[in-house]
Amino acid sequence: MSRPAYVTSGRYAPPAARRELVAVSADGARLHVEEHGEEGAPAVVLAHGWTCSTAFWAAQIRELARDHRVIAYDQRGHGRSPGASRYGTDALADDLVAVLGATLAPGERAVVAGHSMGGMTIMAAAGRPEFAEHAAAALLCSTGSARLVAEALVVPLRPGRVRTRITGAVLGARAPLGPVTPVAKRVLKYATMGPGSAPDKVEACARIVHACPTGVRHAWSEVLAGLDLEANLAELTVPTAVIGGKNDRLTPIVHARGLAAALPHCVGLTELTGMGHMTPIEAPEAVTNAVRELTVHVKHPKNATDDLKEKTP
């Protein structure tokens, strides 16, 4: 069965990249990377979430590329990054630092923004020296550090073992998602988006999520079910902003509040009324503005682009 194509018009249609490259992770996994905007501009690095791809950031890329160099990559197994034999938080961290090393010159720093599993990627990499070298600030968007299945509200039951068990079974299902149908869009909207999400937003999200291979979706669901990155939060010392949707059923707003309280240098918590889990698509301006506000922390060395050219074969 062929996978659904992304939308091809409107703000959620993926823009063409100025440059595409492959970053090679520690275990040899190959990661599709895109660069948008002008060389020499302040850099922003975008890490998408579970079952998504670089297409998820279309609205942010289109706007930020006006005056930033925007780097987006497909997590292993997603989008145009092939599947791999290893899935886990160490792999997430390895992949992010590989992308940073492949795209940023020595000493060049960027705002690193992550949605959902992309935010978990940032937490996982927080203690890495490569992250410290290249991250000037971070945005954690619709994400959490632990207890994801236990606190999810996708299944309308009381908290407890029964709800946790059913939620885990639903999120970790091996069944293919199939074509993007009206019923499929209603299910996805209920589980991942706010009740007022416009049809074009639901359509864009559905096409992205349904394009994720079933095996990859299941493999990462097992990682997320056992996620515990709370100890890593103390190492995320760069200025960090947090965004969450008040109607998020996958990572309820309690996660965003917990992150904001635990981070050593939280520079703001934004709670979006009426928004669900897919905030970069549901509330594109709010997410883009949060990234822009963090770029004040980026000190872009004048010779960074020249240094990168020298180390690029």
State the gist of this model.
This protein is α/β, with parallel strands linked by helices and 313 residues long. It has helices at 58-64, 89-103, 117-125, 129-134, 148-151, 161-171, 182-192, 199-210, 214-225, 253-262, 279-282, 284-294, 304-311, and strands at 19-24, 30-36, 43-47, 69-73, 110-115, 135-141, 240-245, 266-272.
**Strand residue percentage:** 15-25%
What structural category arises from helix and sheet content? alpha/beta
Rg, Å, rounded: 18 Å
Helix content: 25-40%
Task: Kindly state the number of beta strands.
Answer: 8
Which descriptor suits the 3D outline?
A: globular
The number of helices is 13
Distance between termini? 38 Å
Q: Please, what is the average pLDDT?
A: 93
Which spans of ≥5 residues are poorly predicted at pLDDT below 50?
301-313
* Biggest sheet: strand arrangement: 1-2-4-3-5-6-7-8
Largest sheet: 8 strands, mixed
The string of secondary-structure elements, in order, is: EEEHEHEHHEHHHHHEHEHHH
